[in-house]
Design brief:
By secondary structure, the chain is α+β, with helices and mostly antiparallel strands. It is built from 3 helices and 4 strands; from the N terminus they run αββαββα. The protein has one domain (2-104): Glutaredoxin (3-Layer(aba) Sandwich). The protein is globular, with a radius of gyration of 15 Å.
Length: 113
Amino acid sequence: MKNLFTLILILLSTHLFSQEVSVLYLNSAWNSRNAYQDIDKLKGVKILKADYDQQPPSIRQAVRSVPAIVVFKNGRPVATWQADISMKLNVKVEDVQAVIDNAKAPARRASTN
């Protein structure tokens, strides 16, 4: 799975990662009826939508199922959701938004008492 994220990072434009937190949404035309309808409800984050069929073979082989959502922070994946056997992505938009909000929160420093 690490290889998938590495390939995606290399192949996608650096513009995607110019923001601290971003989201990659990956689906395919043949699975459009199972598209994740709540992706545009996410707030405060850049969303890149990519077509599975347009990806190079190495990425198509690495993706287990579509649709998929990957949340990145500083170019590194922090959370991933993929479709189940029904080819539907079963995740609440609130759960994805919570990960985004948490990733955007400033890092806390450990106290030295």
